[in-house]
Amino acid sequence: MAEKLYIEALREGLREEMIRDENVFIIGEDVGLYGGAFGVTKGLFEEFGENRIIDTPISEAAIAGAAVGAALCGMRPVAEIMFFDFFTIAMDQLVNQGAKNRYMFGGKAKVPMVIRGPMGCGTGAAAQHSQSFPSVLAHFPGLKLVMPATPYDVKGLIKSAIRDDNPVVFAEHKLLYWTKGEVPEGDYTVPIGKADVKRQGKDITIVAGSIMVPRSLEAAQKLEEEGIDVEVMDIRSLKPLDLQTVVSSVKKTGRVLIVEDDPISYGWGAEVAAGIVGSEAFDYLDAPVKRLAGLDIPIPYNPNLEKHAVPQVPNIIDAVKEVLR
Amino acid sequence: MTLTREKRLWMYQKMLEIRNFELEVDRLFKANMIWGTCHLSVGQEASAVGSIAALEERDMITSTHRGHGHCIAKGGRLPQMFAELLGKETGYCRGRGGSMHIADLELGNLGANGIVGAGIPIATGAALASKLKKDGKVTLCFFGDGATSQGAFHEAVNLASVMKLPVVYVCENNLYGMSVPFRKASAVENAADRAKAYNIPGIVVDGNDVEAIYEVVKEAVERARRGEGPSLIEAKTYRWLGHSKSDPRVYRTREEEEEWKQRCPIKRYRQQLISEGVDEEDLEKIEKDVEKAIQEALEFAQNSPEPKVEEIMDGVYA
User: Fold this and answer.
1) What is the CATH number of the domain that holds A214?
2) CB-based contacts of B214: which residues, under 8 Å, 6+ apart?
3) Same structural domain, A102 and A132
4) Do A178 and A284 lie in a common domain?
5) Which residues of chain B lie closer than 8 angstroms to A32, CB-CB?
6) What's phi and psi for A208, nearest 5 deg?
7) Across the interface, do A57 and B152 touch by the CB < 8 Å criterion?
8) Do residue A13 and residue A138 come from a single domain?
9) Do A134 and A28 lie in a common domain?
10) All domains of chain B, ordered by start, with CATH?
11) Do A240 and A155 fall into the same domain?
């Protein structure tokens, strides 16, 4: 199997879906000739032309709304929001329209759209270009939300998201774009709503999402040298949330650390923690459930401050040891 | 103008259906039989009917919180509408949506909307779908004067203009955004003046003259279908009743209301049709038929079952 970058795998998934289904199109800011602010759509404009790779004015509400309208009419739009922070500008169309249409129309409409964008800090872009807030969007009934962490998953999940008949928020972390991993050629899908054990272990379960998956895997590798056997679970989808897989793992290890990129308050880790303690896994817990997440601050600019705003590998290692103490 | 007798009678009938439907809804409201709130378009029937008369059956619309008229003119079924307002299982939205969320996708009605201006990007997206699919459809987008102050209006109309999308924007200017007069909410005199900013035609029309509306919308629809892009049409009209229930209407005078009631679009059209040779008996027959249809529709709704609580989770996801 070939090793590919996350960004290449994502592009490959988009491209294959556009070839497979002529109703798929991409709409967003600078997605055309420029290839997207991060280069996700590079080359697609040349291949598919301006009718299917649509550059828009700087109008996030219109991008999201046009995607909702086109999806209601049977298209399968993939809308790119340049930075995850800009989802806020598209919120009404996403939350009050796309997410609610089907239910409030009595279960009749389908809104098969994907809205995707890069979240996360680590590039010095400061508070308005760095926040991760997938938990916010996972709160709205009617939306699905995935946040693939590996090149394999990003290709498989973008295909599932495009083929899904519901609005799917596709949260990428910008530091993941340049990570490498094995990606099969051709068509395969990864199911939405399934967590994935990325590393087997018996001493403790780390439940992580997005960028925190590779960081947790790195921490696990270092902990192995100290004789600690960590299981790393990639939550992968926040909505629907696969609690069953988490519960099974916790029943096996008896200990759990949840690692998130979002600010800690009201983050998805609280949902997972509540799910664990409210399940049969509660009886198997040998230590309190621990959460490690971003600080409750806007992301600061200074590189050292920025690094301290969200969990890093040493923080994960320390937190694991704390749970095992 | 090439309006056939049949089409003219259809327009008269649809305006009457809207008027009678909404007056019935008003009665039900006052009798506490309708839950929540709803917004009536009594007095504004001509803009809904005249605009939709200019569409082909396959064309699409997006509607507003004041959307009963748009739905009826697009062929919406009265029994399902009443049933929805009564929150019944047989309603358009199985009782999940109420007045502000009625949609009939099979008829090309992409839905009323509880968020002012939010239908404008959606209509634009529907038009984008038509352009990509080359299906020849036009989307007609209704909104009120208040919506032209929303950011979504600017974003979507600008996008439609630069992409030359087959969409017609119809602003029903009833002079008040809830209580605030349009002249206080807008820096330009006419909503249609904003068309200049998007380099598209902006046309003001008498919103109580159903044939005048038909004529200007028809031209805009043809232009859109030719691939020449959107137009912005402003129909100046007036809502006779309050914004929603429990509106004491302190922001306008009873004299002003009376003045507008003198310009009733339905009474006016009736006189016009008779003066142009339509037999009054034919109109009376329509009036009777509409009254009967309204009563039958209401009966259907009242006799319909409530939605089941066990099915409350249905329809969130496809």
Assistant:
1) 3.40.50.920
2) B3, B11, B50, B51, B53, B54
3) yes
4) no
5) none
6) -130, 165
7) no
8) yes
9) yes
10) 5-293 (3.40.50.970)
11) no
Place of tokens 């929150």: B87
B140 DSSP β-pair partners: B61, B168
Q: What are phi and psi of A205, to 5 degrees?
A: -105, 125
Nearest chain A residue to B151 by CA distance is A61
Q: Which residues of B touch A62 (CB under 8 A)?
A: 121, 124, 152, 155-156, 158-159
- Domains in chain A: how many in total? 2
Number of residues that make up chain B: 318
Tell me, yes or no, whether A189 lies in a domain: no
Nearest to A73 among B111, B126, B315 (CB): B126
Tell me which residue range forms the domain holding A119: 2-183
For the entire predicted model, the pTM comes to: 0.96
Q: How confident is the prediction along chain B (318 residues), in pLDDT tens digits per residue?
A: 579 999 999 999 999 999 999 999 999 999 999 999 899 999 999 999 999 999 999 999 999 999 999 999 999 999 999 999 999 999 999 999 999 999 999 999 999 999 999 999 999 999 999 999 999 999 999 999 999 999 999 999 999 999 999 999 999 999 999 999 999 999 999 999 999 999 999 999 999 999 999 999 999 999 999 999 999 999 999 999 999 877 889 999 999 999 999 999 999 999 999 999 999 999 999 999 999 999 999 999 999 999 999 999 999 999
Answer whether B155 sits within 8 Å of A102, measured CB to CB.
no
Contact B115 A74 (CB under 8 A): no
Whether residue A73 and residue B125 make contact (CB cut-off 8 A), yes or no, is: yes
Q: Which of A16, A129, A173, A271 is catalytic?
A: A129
B99 with B180: CB under 8 angstroms? no
How high is the ipTM of this complex?
0.94
Given the structure tokens 């598919």, which residue do they identify?
Answer: A48
Task: Tell me the nearest-neighbour CA distance from B134 into chain A, angstroms.
Answer: 11
Neighbours of B308 (CB within 10 A): 11
Last residue of a domain, which of A183, A210, A232?
A183
